[in-house]
Design goal:
The structure is a single chain. This protein has 2 domains: 67 residues; 258 residues, 3-Layer(aba) Sandwich (Aspartate Aminotransferase, domain 2). The chain has 13 helices and 11 strands. It is globular and about 65 Å long. It starts with a helix and ends with a helix. The structure holds pyridoxal-5'-phosphate. The site of pyridoxal-5'-phosphate has 14 residues, from helix 6.
């Protein structure tokens, strides 16, 4: 075991240190070589060291450089050193992080991380929280608590009786709601399409003046950090407008909520603390390994009511928080260890610096592209940049060539009818030189394809 783990650590370190110089997208040959994995299920066993050697030989070259400094696709941070190391150690601990009495160490880490997170986001210390796989499941968990409360107020127990015959719930979303919220509404029986969709402004922000008059059970889904523009809904105004109706306000802040941690950007999400529930990711801006998301619910008992189960063979609820009483999963890994480690490594200053630096580098991209005559479609307020290189086919060709070139990686999007390349700066490792090196390739490819 010792030799195997040492050998694995050596291989992992070799991979990580190669990232700054390695191509970001895997080479086509490396992807083709994955066919060697298509063997029948073996009859005989294989030595563990050969298993790891096979993984490293075939899969390492076929990975995309998400943990490296020039991956600007989606919103994906790399793994901070302490977070990756905590992930390894937690893998060795192999703790089922459900009950405080059974796995006290990792439960403690989750509790401390939770206390720090509530302080970072300025949320009430009474919040219930779920450490889950990502913002999708965080949205699902928080909206399950919302469903519980708005129906309980109408005299209905949704966990016991389901939605058959229940009072209807009005669900309000903005026109640029993230598909993970829509999917969560579907999984909760609230309907992906059975929603009131209100218009957004030219940055994708929900227009509070277009909120309907709400009456009876209602949930309003807001967003901070639009996945295209980085813009945030006016959560304060939305909360104030619907307060008298008793509607539940949820915030999808998968990456945007982290603006709260950065003094120069906190004003963008001012007012989020007035909502009833929040979803965010740790594997995006906090730079912990996948998969790690967080749900917070002001009324912690509501989340517990939606998620807790009891059985004779399971330990009873005690005075210490049992993480598994707040999550859809029963068995779950110790992802709080990585969140704790990342926060411990960064501290308040390091976290603020990470967010500010990424935002500064996004602005550097936008300025460099605009100076060369390319159109920036969004107000670059956070870490997201949308750039058009001209007609859709030109922009798409630049994106395809950029991905094939390997210097960096960006994806495409169609936003408010415009085809654009999306640049998302989210990794702790990215610096000015990475931006300039990537910009140079973008500008060269854009010129080759005829723009601007
Ligand atoms: C990324 C994202 C999600 C989904 O998060 P996952 O971690 O992929 O589940 C939800 N909402 C927004 C705004 C996002 O950016």
């Amino acid at each position: 075991m010792r030799d195997l783990l040492a050998d694995t650590a050596e291989r992992a370190a070799r991979h990580l240190t190669s990232l700054p110089d390695r191509r970001v997208a895997p080479a086509p040959d490396a992807v083709r070589a994955l066919a060697h994995l298509d063997e029948p299920f073996p009859d005989h066993s294989t030595d563990p060291s050969d298993v790891v050697a096979t993984l490293d030989a075939l899969v390492t070259p076929a990975t995309i450089g998400i943990p490296g400094p020039r991956f600007f696709g989606f919103v994906a941070g790399g793994a901070l050193p302490a977070a990756l190391a905590a992930n390894w150690l937690a893998g060795a601990w192999d703790q089922n992080t459900v009950y405080a009495t059974v796995t006290p160490g990792v439960v403690k880490l989750e509790a401390v991380a939770l206390r720090w997170l509530l302080e970072i986001f300025g949320l009430p210390s009474t919040c219930g929280a779920a450490f889950v796989t990502g913002a999708t499941v965080a949205n699902f968990s928080a909206l399950a608590a919302a469903r519980h409360v708005v129906l309980e107020r109408a005299g209905w127990n949704v966990e016991a009786d389901g939605l058959y015959g229940a009072p209807p719930i009005t669900v309000v979303v903005g026109a640029e709601v993230h598909p993970s919220v829509t999917k969560s509404l579907g999984m909760l029986g609230l309907g992906r399409s059975r929603v009131v969709t209100i218009p957004v402004d030219d940055q994708g922000r929900m227009r509070p003046d277009r909120l309907p008059t709400l009456d009876g059970p209602a949930i309003v889904c807001t967003q901070v950090g639009n996945v295209n523009t980085g813009a945030s809904d006016a959560v304060r105004e939305i909360c104030e407008r619907v307060r008298d109706s008793g509607a539940w306000v949820h915030v999808d802040g998968a990456f945007g909520l982290w603006a709260r941690a950065a003094p120069a950007h906190a004003h963008l999400v001012e007012g989020v603390q007035l909502a009833d529930s929040w979803a965010t990711d740790a594997h995006k801006w906090l730079n912990v390994p996948f998969d790690s998301g967080l749900a917070f619910v002001r009324d912690g008992e509501a989340l517990r009511s939606a998620m807790a189960v009891a059985a004779e063979y399971l330990p009873p609820t005690g005075p210490v928080r049992n993480p598994g009483e707040y999550t859809p999963e029963l068995s779950r890994r110790a992802r709080g260890a990585e969140v704790w480690a990342a926060l411990k490594q960064l501290g308040r200053e390091g976290l603020a610096d990470l967010v500010e630096r990424n935002c500064r580098l996004a602005t550097r991209f936008a300025e460099g592209l605009a100076a060369a005559g390319h159109e920036i479609l969004n107000d670059v307020v956070l870490n997201q940049v949308l750039v058009s290189f001209g007609p859709p086919e030109v922009t798409n060709r630049v994106i395809a060539d950029l991905q094939a070139d390997g210097t960096c990686w960006c994806g495409g999007t169609v936003w408010q009818g415009r085809t654009a390349m999306r640049i998302s700066v989210s990794c702790w490792m990215t610096d000015e030189a990475d931006v300039d090196r990537s910009l140079a390739v973008m500008l060269r490819l854009a010129e080759r394809h005829g723009g601007p």
